[in-house]
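pls design
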């Protein structure tokens, strides 16, 4: 894959990632978010965060499968988009569901209570907190500073994905197939990662034996 093709793929991926946000913004402006606008905003930002997070986790297996090493350049951008939607999703929860529009109205204890009482909120928080250090250390300076530890830190992305899927499953009162489909995709991506790690180990052992 040439640098030009990568640039085109990146531009396309950027537009696809920006689409759900632009769509929500447009529909908010025109008052076209359905009967429950707050719920629409919350659900759509949550789903965008999870889908883009799964796409981020798919980059490495796809790179190994196709041999297009430059694809790795997509990971940071996708991860940051996933974090962006998760942040907006959390902000909507704090501002609208917890009625925290003004600092004086904010009751941190009510948010903590909700996290403790509703297990689906707790899993959402775990997913968000797992994404936070990845977003904060995504700059070139941090990547250099952390070296090998940065790769290890990135295992948190799987925790974020798993907690995100559990959050979606626990959120649905009536069982629906979508969260389980996302769960199945996550399991496949995890398996691919295990196979890649095993192949790397075998190649290293073969090199050492030679
Ligand atoms: C930061 C803490 C989080 C809180 C407090 C939170 C809260 C919520 C709430 C209140 C809902 C809507 C429930 C309903 O209206 O029935 C929801 C739905 C959802 N959230 Fe979160 N969430 C959090 C983090 C996340 C993260 C990090 C992800 C993704 C990785 C995520 C993905 C989802 C999904 C996929 C849905 C369901 C969307 C749908 O039904 O279409 N959430 N969340």
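designed seq:
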């Amino acid at each position: 894959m040439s640098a030009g093709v990568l640039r085109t793929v990146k531009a396309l991926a950027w537009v696809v990632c920006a689409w759900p946000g632009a769509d929500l913004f447009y529909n908010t402006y025109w008052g076209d978010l359905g009967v429950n606008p707050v719920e629409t905003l919350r659900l759509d930002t949550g789903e965008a965060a999870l889908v883009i997070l799964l796409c981020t986790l798919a980059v490495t297996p796809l790179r190994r499968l196709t041999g297009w090493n430059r694809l790795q350049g997509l990971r940071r951008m996708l991860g940051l988009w996933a974090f962006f939607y998760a942040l907006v999703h959390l902000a909507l929860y704090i501002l609208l569901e917890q009625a925290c529009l003004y600092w004086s109205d904010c009751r941190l204890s009510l948010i903590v209570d909700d996290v403790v009482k509703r297990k689906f909120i707790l899993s959402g928080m775990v997913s968000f907190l797992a994404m936070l250090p990845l977003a904060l250390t995504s700059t070139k300076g941090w990547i250099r500073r952390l070296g090998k530890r940065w790769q290890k830190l990135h295992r948190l992305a799987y925790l974020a994905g798993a907690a995100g899927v559990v959050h979606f499953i626990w959120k649905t009162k009536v069982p629906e197939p979508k969260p389980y489909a996302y769960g199945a995709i996550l399991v496949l991506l995890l398996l691919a990662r295990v196979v890649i790690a095993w192949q790397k180990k075998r190649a290293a052992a073969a090199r050492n034996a030679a």
